Amino acid sequence: MKKKFWKKFRDRLSGRIFFILALSTISALVVITVFIFVSGMPLIAEVGLFSFIFGMNWSPSQGQFGILPMIVGTVSVTLGAALIGIPVGICCSIFMAEFAPAKMQVIFRPAIQLLAGIPSVVYGFWGMIFIVPAISSNLGGLGMSILAGSIILGIMILPTIISISEVSIIALPRHYKEGALALGMTHWQTILRVQLPAAKSGIVAGVILGIGRAVGETMVVIMVLGNAVAMPESILDSVRTLTTNIGLEMGYASGAHQQALFATGIVLFVIIMILNITAQYITRKKVKK
Fold it and tell me: Whole-prediction pTM value?
């Protein structure tokens, strides 16, 4: 009887401890969300949502709080990173899942995981030393540009895309591949026409999560974008992203300026939440199927 009692007691205690830990995580998210919205919404209410999002001028000292150039900068850098990282990431995941020998996988998988563990400041320093001078020498301009940020962010999102895409391909039922090969398809036809469409939900979820990391990156873009608050005209122009704006100015901002930075955080928070919810929806849709 005593053993049964202590066993039930341990089970109940463990369950409550895990519940408290899970609740603390959710509570932290709620507190952060409330704090950001409470700090930023007064400025949006004062300036107006339309004027804040679509305003062209950012000059807090003069009471101008338009973040459209920074939204365009964020979108352009993220789009460039996606154009570089998505094709490379999906191709790498196909190679790892279908073609790489076991000995090569032992080397490649830790190397890909290591990419995810490298600090952002190291990527930024590498970009300043190699990527920025290369762009300036070969394409013109100062080198600190959308192109430089896109290249580095494209590399940074590779581990997320490769890992999730590879798992999605490997997790497919074996009879998908065997049935396609039995019908006379080649290996490449099986990959392109059967496996990739079947793993599409997982691959898309990995892509969205990778894009979410690119949107939220701060240190790298501070170091290689040039941080000019202006509408870009080409990929060689300097821009400022939403995260860069917060990182550069929060240290000395006060009053309405500080509220404007929190309001910028609200816009960024909403964008990232939309991306994460989309990824979760796609993943759950795949599980239900």
Answer: 0.84
